[in-house]
RNA sequence: GCGGGUGUGGUGAAAUUGGUAGACACGCCAGACUUAGGAUCUGGUGCCUCACGGUAUGCGGGUUCGAGUCCCUCCACCCGCACCA
């Protein structure tokens, strides 16, 4: 009876399907545990061995928790809307729904092959109308609500209308336009169009004309995080700013709660830091300066350093700022216009690329320092961004390096307010210096001065404290076909929400996927879908990729519900995701949006918690280890790696799947490509050895490995354990197929503890020896702790140690081997179930009781102490653990080796750490 | 530039959190069994040295009886952000 993994794995996978072994109920007396993977976008290329790393980790955890008595939700689904399917449709004419269905089927097959415990009855697909109906519904909830800053939460828009009717917008500053202000009487007189326009400035999902990242090549608008250095993250196409009417989510209103929520969740420090940086909270003040000789205009700046107010030597206004036209003096008009032309001519990309060059122009206007009346020249420059703060800054060259460089470049005199702390060579951004030349702040430490200055500014009525965020409201429109249609219609150009009963707004069939004339999405071309009647048109944009993924974890709790996105009792039961496993690439995008949606749904009373993911694990990436062959230049002869220095060669990538370790399969190589049919080889020791190189896993480099192939050769259990054995889950590491043999040998060795090739089952019911019990309980302790802490690589090691030791002991006792199988189940479920049944069990091992660690079996009565002299280990001596220190000292000092190393010198001190070591100090 | 992280054998890595550095594997070397081995088993394997022993966790310093682990300086690499006032 040998370990026939192919038959075993097939048998149990079928059995588990037949018995609904992974079906999870929403009603259980057990405590719940929700283990979630970031669901994949089902691309056309399928999975490579790097993808399942996270899924295996979460599967081990889910199975472990189940054995420990939890009711575990561990679902899987598809983030199925997205650009690649549409791009493919553009190229081939195949409908995205068709290719998506094909791809998900393929992914599903690959996943099933690895033996995951997903409850497929809860499978979701974001492109399914039964799913996106609820994405649209939640969008409407956002559209129909606003963020009440006094309550710091989302509230229904009807509440806001009631407030307007009684008080106007006093006390509820308009987040979309701070200048809007009206009384109750004025509100009542507004037309419906005007009222709805104002409401739009408050809604959490809103429509605005805004500069968006327009990517002509992709024919769509991209979110800020989809643009990297001025080009599209996907494809690297140029991106320009364009004004379009776009949907947005008012995520900025949640900035502070998103920041504070980070304190309550277990994400890695790096991940939290990335989100904090993205949110970019800063505390400072807005200060308004009068302009000399211009009573109609003022310049309002934002600064985080009000303490440096006496060091202001110039002002800089963003070139796009509306003030520029109003304050420029006639004699500077030409200079300014020339500069604005220059700015206009530069693409976003160029501006990003040349951050170091210093450019600007003087407006001719002077602002007046309200504290000392000093006249401050007002400049414009690219380095001030219109979109941040007030779009204008007060420049303090002695404290800010950019201001310093600007001042030096344009010969603007620098005022030093920090004495010796400023060298004149570069700015010093310290907050600890003592202020000078600063009037009422003289002699004050800068940190303290910040508050004093801010108080003074507020009391003089020339400004106020202000908190700013780098984060922008997120664009929620895509000019694309393959996404959720908006449940919005325009009547005479005014947007109206549909009602839940009108949902879903299904995607109509289209013949082509080309953009509309004005850059709208392909939906704009389907006129009978768009035009409901003469005055009523549908929204033709679709939602972005992160719409469906922002709330999917809620749907798994109640995936078939037809009356709501998920019943409150179901989301209350499953509650937050206990462990969320996925890659770091979603650090700022998906996670922030998902956190915001959760908070909004919580505010609106739809769910009972406001953070979606309690704990986040970021699996590392699996890199490719490429194999190289060396072709002698100008020939079809390949020279082995060790001999390549003797020739002039070119290194070529070779498919890693036809290389065993580093030894090339020459026949397979000849058959790989026609060019190599009659290749010649210069061998070393009769073998052709390849070079290796670590790089990204990519089809182009021929270093991708399909999990199916590995599973076919070694089995799913081996594959699962090997992926875990590679190293810590969070760490990135290269894939080496060769190394898998160690894990495979281990499983075969384990099998032989239970079954012999000839004799069959060899497990005996005899009582276990103390040695055997010690091995078992050491293993229980380590596996239990390691599994709980996602330390799967060390857990696999412990299994190996255990099996090695039991093999040495020739152990075959049921009381040892049966519990061991339960420990192994999360890692190697098929093999465990098979042996479990061979041992005579009739119920599934999936719900077996987890072995309980008992200290008494591992307790040692004595310890073999390393004996060090001055920190260097010289010998070992065994002492009972309950023996007195004085007795130890005596024996140790009498020891021959110790005597030798003490060289007759007097003992200064003896350090005895019980159960650890002994150090003799001389 | 700012923030986060990582540096340990030929390779992936471990180290009970300050206590015998290199567990467990891959690879390599030697051997056993075998018609054969890409099966299985045994032994060896950080470096220097015939050995005694010395030396070793990116570099240099410090704290300590004792440092891979704590502190300081520097170096290298990876990831994220990047004119955010």
Automatic annotation (TrEMBL):
Please state every residue range assigned to the domain named Methionyl/Valyl/Leucyl/Isoleucyl-tRNA synthetase anticodon-binding.
773-882
Q: Leucyl-tRNA synthetase editing domain: from which residue to which, for each copy? A: 276-457
This protein's GO cellular component annotations are: cytosol
Task: Provide the GO biological process annotations.
Answer: leucyl-tRNA aminoacylation
Q: Name the EC number(s).
A: 6.1.1.4
Q: Where in the cell is it found?
A: Cytoplasm
Name the chemical reaction catalysed here.
tRNA(Leu) + L-leucine + ATP = L-leucyl-tRNA(Leu) + AMP + diphosphate
Q: Which NCBIfam families match?
A: leuS_bact
What is the name of the protein in this document?
Answer: Leucine--tRNA ligase
């Amino acid at each position: 009876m040998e370990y026939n993994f192919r038959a075993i794995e097939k048998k149990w996978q079928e059995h588990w399907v037949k018995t609904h072994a992974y079906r999870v109920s929403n009603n259980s007396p057990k405590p719940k545990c929700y283990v979630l993977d970031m669901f994949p976008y089902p691309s056309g290329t399928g999975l490579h061995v790097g993808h399942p790393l996270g899924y295996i980790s979460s599967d081990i955890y889910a199975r472990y928790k189940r054995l420990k008595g939890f009711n575990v939700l561990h679902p899987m689904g598809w983030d199925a809307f997205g650009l690649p399917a549409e791009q493919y449709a553009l190229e081939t004419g195949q409908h995205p729904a068709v290719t998506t269905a094909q791809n998900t089927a393929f992914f599903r097959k690959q996943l099933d092959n690895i033996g995951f415990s997903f409850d497929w009855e809860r499978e979701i697909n974001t492109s399914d109308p039964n799913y996106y109906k609820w994405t649209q519904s939640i969008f409407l909830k956002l559209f129909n609500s606003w963020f009440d800053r006094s309550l710091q939460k989302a509230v229904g828009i009807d509440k806001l209308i009631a407030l307007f009717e009684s008080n106007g917008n006093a006390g509820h500053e308009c987040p979309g336009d701070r200048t809007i202000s009206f009384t109750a009487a004025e509100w009542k007189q507004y037309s419906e169009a005007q009222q709805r326009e104002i409401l739009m400035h408050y809604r959490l999902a809103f429509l605005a004309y805004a500069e968006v990242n327009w990517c002509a090549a992709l024919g769509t608008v991209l979110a800020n995080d989809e643009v990297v250095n001025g080009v599209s993250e996907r494809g690297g196409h140029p991106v320009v700013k364009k004004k379009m009417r776009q949907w947005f989510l008012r995520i900025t209103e949640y900035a502070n709660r998103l920041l504070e929520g980070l304190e309550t969740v277990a994400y890695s420090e790096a991940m939290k830091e990335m989100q904090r940086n993205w949110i970019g909270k800063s505390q400072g003040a807005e200060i308004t300066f009068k302009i000399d000789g211009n009573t109609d205009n003022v310049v309002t700046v934002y600064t985080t350093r009000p303490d440096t107010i006496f060091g202001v030597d110039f002002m800089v206004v963003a070139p796009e700022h509306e003030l520029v036209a109003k304050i420029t003096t006639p004699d500077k008009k030409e200079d300014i216009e020339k500069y604005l032309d220059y700015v206009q001519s530069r693409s976003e990309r160029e501006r990003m690329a040349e951050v170091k060059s210093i450019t600007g122009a003087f407006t001719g206007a002077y602002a007046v320092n309200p504290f000392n009346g000093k006249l401050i020249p007002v400049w414009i420059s690219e380095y001030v961004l219109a979109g941040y703060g007030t779009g204008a800054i007060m420049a303090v060259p002695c404290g800010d390096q950019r201001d310093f460089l600007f001042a030096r470049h344009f010969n603007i005199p620098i005022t030093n307010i920090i004495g010796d702390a400023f060298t004149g060579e570069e700015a010093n951004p310290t907050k600890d210096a003592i202020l000078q030349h600063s009037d009422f702040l003289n002699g004050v430490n800068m940190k303290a001065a910040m508050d004093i200055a801010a108080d003074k500014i507020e009391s003089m009525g020339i400004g106020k404290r202000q908190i700013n965020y780098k984060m922008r409201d997120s664009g929620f429109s895509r000019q694309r076909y393959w996404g959720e249609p908006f449940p919005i219609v325009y009547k005479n150009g005014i947007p109206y929400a549909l009602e839940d009963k009108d949902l879903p707004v299904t995607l109509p069939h289209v013949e082509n996927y080309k953009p509309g004339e004005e850059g709208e999405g392909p939906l704009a071309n389907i006129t009978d879908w768009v035009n409901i009647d003469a005055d009523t048109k549908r929204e033709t944009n679709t939602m972005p990729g992160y719409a469906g993924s922002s709330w999917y974890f809620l749907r798994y709790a109640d995936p078939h519900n037809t009356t709501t996105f998920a019943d409150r009792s179901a989301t209350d039961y499953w509650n937050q995701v206990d462990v969320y496993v996925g890659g770091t690439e979603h650090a700022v995008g998906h996670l922030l949006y998902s956190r915001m949606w959760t908070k909004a749904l919580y505010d609106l009373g739809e769910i009972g918690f406001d953070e979606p993911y309690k704990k986040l694990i970021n699996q590392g990436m699996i890199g490719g280890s490429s194999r190289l062959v060396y072709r002698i230049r100008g020939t079809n002869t390949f020279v082995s790696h060790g001999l390549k220095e003797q020739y002039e060669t070119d290194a070529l990538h070779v498919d890693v799947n036809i290389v065993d370790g580093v030894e090339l399969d020459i026949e397979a190589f000849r058959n790989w490509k026609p060019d190599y049919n009659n290749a010649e080889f210069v061998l070393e020791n009769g073998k052709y050895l390849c070079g290796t190189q670590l790089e990204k896993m990519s089809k182009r480099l021929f270093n991708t490995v399909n999990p199916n192939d590995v599973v076919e050769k070694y089995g799913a259990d081996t594959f699962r354990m090997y992926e875990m054995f590679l190293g810590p889950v969070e760490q990135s590491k290269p894939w080496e197929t060769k190394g898998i043999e160690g894990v495979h040998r281990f499983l075969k060795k384990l099998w032989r503890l239970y079954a012999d090739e000839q004799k069959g089952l060899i497990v005996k019911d005899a009582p276990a020896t103390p040695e055997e019990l010690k091995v078992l309980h050491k293993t229980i302790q380590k596996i239990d702790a390691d599994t709980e802490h996602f330390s799967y690589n060390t857990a696999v090691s412990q299994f190996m140690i255990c099996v090695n030791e039991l093999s040495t002991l020739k152990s075959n006792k049921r009381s040892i081997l049966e519990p061991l199988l339960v420990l192994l189940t999360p890692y190697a479920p098929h093999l465990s179930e098979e042996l479990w049944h061979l041992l005579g069990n009739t119920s599934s091992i999936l719900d077996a009781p987890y072995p309980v660690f008992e200290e008494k079996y591992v307790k040692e009565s004595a310890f073999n102490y390393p004996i060090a002299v001055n920190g260097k280990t010289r010998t070992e001596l065994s002492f009972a653990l309950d023996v007195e220190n004085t007795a130890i000292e005596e024996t140790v000092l009498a020891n021959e080796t110790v005597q030798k190393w003490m060289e007759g010198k007097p003992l200064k001190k003896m350090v005895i750490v019980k159960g650890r070591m002994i150090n003799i100090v001389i």
